[in-house]
Every structure is written in C-alpha cells, then in structure tokens.
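Justification of resources, computational component.

The compute hours requested in this renewal are based largely on the per-chain cost of generating structure records like the one below. Each record pairs the submitted sequence with a full structure-token output. That output is archived, and it is also reused by downstream analysis tasks.
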Amino acid sequence: MNEELLQAAREAGRRAHCPYSNFHVGAAVLADGRVYTGANVENASYGLTICAERTAVFAAVLAGAKRIEPVAVACLDAVDGGDPASFMPCGACRQVLAEFAGPDVPVHVDRAGTFTLGDLLPRAFRL
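The structure output for this chain reads:
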C-alpha cells in the first residue's frame, strides 16, 4: 500500500497548479479504504495558495471520511539527494493532518522516508 499511495501522490503532483514556484507537490491519503489525492494550487496572492496535503485531506472529509490513515507526499521538483526538509509537509499541513489522524499514522514522504505524524508534529494542538 505504501508504494500505491506514493504513486497516487506522484500522479496528483503532476496536476498541480504551480506557475509561481514551479514546485509540483502531490499527496494521497487513505480513508475508509479509499484513496483521496490532492495537489498544491497556487494563487498570485501567495497567502491564498493551498498545499497538496490539505487538498487531499479536504477531499476525504468532503466525501464523508472522519479519520485518515496512511498519508503519502511527493515533491516532484525537489532535488534528489537534497535536504530532506525540502520534501516534508509544512506546519499547517501537519496540523490539518493531526485533526483527522492520530500520532501513529504513517506519513510516507517520497525520497525521504516514512515517519509517524507524531514524529513530524509532536504535541499537536488539540481542543
């Protein structure tokens, strides 16, 4: 399933709208046995840009999912052998993931490895 999720994330990244950064990112989440994908969608007003991880989570939630399971992220334009930090989900995405996934959920980051959400976001904000 890890490779299947990563492949879905890579395919979603090819559909990213990123005319400003030219940094294609795709994400895939598994929820209720179904894979949901997302890609980054940029806007000329950078604050309105949305990340791939959040579009994938929001697609799952809009389809009725309450919890997400494994996550995969693929940064297609990140340099091979580069700093693994350039492949990682941003802080906002980590917090959104934490809203719908537990700390033990695996996050597969293409070309960087597999981490738990708790590793990526220790002491997540919760209400």
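The chain has a mean pLDDT of 96. Strands lie at 25-31, 34-39, 71-75, 106-109, 113-116.
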